[in-house]
Amino acid sequence: MNTTALTDSSRNMIEVTGEGTVAAAPDRALITLGAITEKASLSEAQTENAGAVSSILQSLFQLGIPKEKVQTVQYGIEIQYNYKEGVQTFRGYKVTHLLRVTADKIEQTGGIVDTAVRHGANTVSGIQFTSAHPEAYYNQALTMAVHSSRQKAATLAKAMGVALHPTPVRIQEASQSIEPRPYQMASFAAAAATPIQPGELNISAVVKAYYSYS
């Protein structure tokens, strides 16, 4: 418990920190997947990778994913080497093209992954679950944080034997946390449909409040 009693020129005050956390069911999934291609020839690597990504995109669009919900988040070309007994030998090129797919219906997550894999995706680097409208949950957490600060101040005032003024003199938002929940893929390729469990989001708020007492 972070609490401090202090005195200024006009009044006695108690400084407290209040926390609040709300559990929310996620309603949006962010899926990062794509194709990684390695070839001795750069042009061959680019061509094969472009074909795989094009196939992935078409399969997603046919699945009903809007084009604006799919975007490239990484594209890169790397030179690959073999190392043996301290000697570097050129192996080829690696082309990486990753897409981020936003699914507004999280029950589609497993189907999106499976469809992409069937049409050329050989990497699924991550799935994150989040809320399309986190503000309402955060406001609930913020309200809980204010109530928490008041309870702490009342407890401290009672221990000090003083009368607490219930309305804070000053209150400020200290921090907030609305983080997507990551999902670690055990395997991106499976014979059966990939099961996805979104779990819950924890949305938190912290406030610092100053209460006067007499």
What Rg do the Cα atoms give?
Answer: 26 Å
> Which CATH architecture of the largest domain is right?
2-Layer Sandwich
CATH topology heading of the largest domain: Translation Initiation Factor IF3
CATH class of the largest domain: Alpha Beta
The largest sheet, given as strand count, sense and whether it forms a barrel, is: 5 strands, antiparallel
Q: How many helices in DSSP terms?
A: 3
H/E topology pattern: EEEHEEHEHEEE
Number of strands: 9
How would you concisely characterize the structure shown here?
The protein is an alpha+beta fold. It has helices at 42-62, 109-118, 135-160; strands at residues 3-7, 12-24, 28-39, 70-84, 87-103, 123-130, 170-177, 181-183, 201-213.
Overview of this protein structure:
This is SIMPL domain-containing protein. InterPro entries: 26kDa_periplasmic_antigen (IPR052022), SIMPL/DUF541 (IPR007497). The structure is a single chain. With 214 residues, the protein is an alpha+beta fold. It folds into 2 domains: 3-26 and 133-213, Protein of unknown function (DUF541), domain 1 (Translation Initiation Factor IF3); 28-130, Protein of unknown function (DUF541), domain 2 (Alpha-Beta Plaits, 2-Layer Sandwich), CATH 3.30.70.2970. 27% of the residues lie in helices and 44% in strands. It contains 3 helices and 9 strands. A 5-stranded antiparallel beta sheet has the order 4-5-3-6-8, covered by helices on one side. Strands 1-2-9-7 form a 4-stranded antiparallel beta sheet. Strand 4 and strand 5 (87-103) form a beta hairpin. Helix 1 (42-62) packs across helix 2. It starts with a strand and ends with a strand. Mean pLDDT is 88; it is low at 186-191.
